[in-house]
Amino acid sequence: MRTTARLGLAALTALSGIATLAPAASAQKTVTIIREIDTDRYDPHRSTARSNAEVMYMVGDTMVALDYDMKTLKPNLAASWTVSPDGLVYTFKLRPDVTFCSGKKMTAKDVVATYERWMDPETKGLVKWRMGDLDKVTAVDDVTVEYKLKKPFSELLYQMTQYFHTIINVDQVKQLGADYGIKGFDGTGPFCMQSWTPRDQTVLTRHAAYKWGPPIYASQSAQVDRVIWKVVPEENTRVTALQSGQADASQYVPYWSLKDLMANKQLSVSRAQNYFWTFFIGFKIDRELMRDEKVRRAMNLAVDQRAITEAVTFGFAMPADTMLMPSVLDFNSNVDRKIYGESISEAEKLLDEAGWKKGADGFRYKDGKKLAPVIYGIAGFFKEIAEAVQGDLRKIGVDLQIQLFDSTVAWGKLATQEFDAFGMSFPYVSAGDALNLYFRSANTPTPNRMNWKDKETDELLDRGSQALDDKTRSEAYARVQAKVHDAAVWIPLYHEPLHLVAGPKLKPMQAHGNYGCALYKGLDIALK
Prior knowledge:
Layout: H1 9-19, H2 21-24, E1 30-35, H3 50-59, E2 64-66, E3 73-75, E4 78-83, E5 89-94, H4 108-119, E6 134-141, E7 144-149, H5 156-159, H6 170-176, E8 191-197, E9 201-206, E10 226-231, H7 235-244, E11 249-250, H8 258-263, E12 268-271, E13 277-283, H9 293-302, H10 305-313, E14 318-319, H11 344-353, E15 357-358, E16 364-366, E17 369-370, E18 374-378, H12 381-394, E19 401-405, H13 407-413, E20 421-427, H14 431-438, H15 455-465, H16 470-486, E21 490-495, E22 499-502
C-alpha cells in the first residue's frame, strides 16, 4: 500500500515550492489550496475542465446559485426571476450594486454581451446546449434582462448555476483577443485574478467591493485576502502538505489517506451533502459483440461493484446499482436494480441462452468468434478499475481486452468507432442533465459513445426538457431512465463522494458538490 513516506524527487520539489509561498504572503490572510492538475485557460465558454470551473466560481458569478443539496436554486447576480406561462421568456431582475474587479459596473448589457459572445460561432463556445434553444437576450433596462427561448427548456435555471454561465466583461475579451482567459480574466466574483503561471499556480486576491454572494453562506464577502491555487500532481505530496500545514486545503486527497486525515485532530474533513459524479463502463451497442442485450446483462451481473468500490475507493464511494445517483433531481426510484450487482450463475445462464458456449480455454465462443470485447479508457485511475472488471468477466468466460491511453490522446480515441466498451466518469446536476447529454441520438459518436439511437428516447427527452411543470419533466425523464437502464447499456461502477480537507489554520468548511468544485464560491474560507 502507498504511504506518505514514499516521496520521489519531483514530489519533494513540489512540496518545497509550497513552502516558499509563506514568507512573501505573511502580511496578508493568505490561503494555499492544492490541486492535481491545471486548466488550459480561464474562460467559461471555451474550457470544460474542472480546474477552470473551481477558479471560475471564485472569480465570477452566475445569474443563479445552487444550494448544498444540489436541488434548491438561490439568487446570485439575479435577485429574482419570473418565467412566462409558455416557458419561453425568463425575466431576471439584477442586483444594482454589482461591479467587476476592474471597477466597471455590471449591468444588463454585460449579461447580453456574455450570451452573445457564447453564441457567436467565432468564439467556438462549448456545450451551448446548456443555454437552451436561445432566441435572444435583451437588456430591458440596466437591471432587467429578458432571456427568450425558441422552445421551453425546463433545465435552464439549473444549467444557469453551472460556471459556463459566468457573466464576463466582454470589453476585456475585445482587449485581450486570443489571450483572453490566459493573460487575464475580469469577473464579478468574491476574488479577482492576480496572476496565472500555467502548471504551477494561480493567485487570486480579495474583491473588496464584493457583497453579493449567494445566501447559502454566512458571509456574502470574501474572508481572506489571497487564495493561491497550487498545482501538485503527486498525491503523496498533497497529503504530506496538508498534514504538515504547508497547504491549507484540498479536495484532491487519495482515498487511501482519508482515514488518517479524518483522525488528525488538526484537520477538518467535510463530505459534500450531495455530489453527482458516477464512474461506469459503457457499451457500444451496435458493435457485433455488444448488440445482444443478454450479453450486456450478463457482463453486468458478473461485475462485483462492492469489491471494486472497496479496492479502489477503500469503501468511501457508493457501489452503483443504478446509472444515476439516487439523490439526484428527477431520479427514477422504480428502476429494476436487480440487473446490476454480482450474480455469476445468472450471468452464465444468459450467455448460454445467447449462444455463447465455453471452450476448452474457459472463454466463450459463438460461430467461431471469441467473446473478447475491447475496452478503451484513460490511463491512470482507470487501470485498476479495468483490471478488476477484467478479472470478474473472466469468471463467466468473457476475455476483456484493455487498451488505455494517455489523456492527451484518449479523448480522440474515444470519439472513434474502434472499441466495444469504454470507461468513463462524469458530473451531472440533474437526471435531465445526464440523460440529455448521453442518450440523445444527435450526440453520437460523442458523448453518446454507446451509439444509443432511439426515436422514443429522443421524444421523451424533448418532452422532459420542454416541460412546463415538474411532474411532466420528472415523468418523462423517469421513462428514459427505465428504458436505458433495462437495456443495460452501462455497467455502473460507483458513485463517487467528494471530501474537502481544511488545514490547521482554517475554520471547518462545508464541501459543495457543484461540478465537483468543493469550495464553490470560497466564501467560507476563513482563518481561525
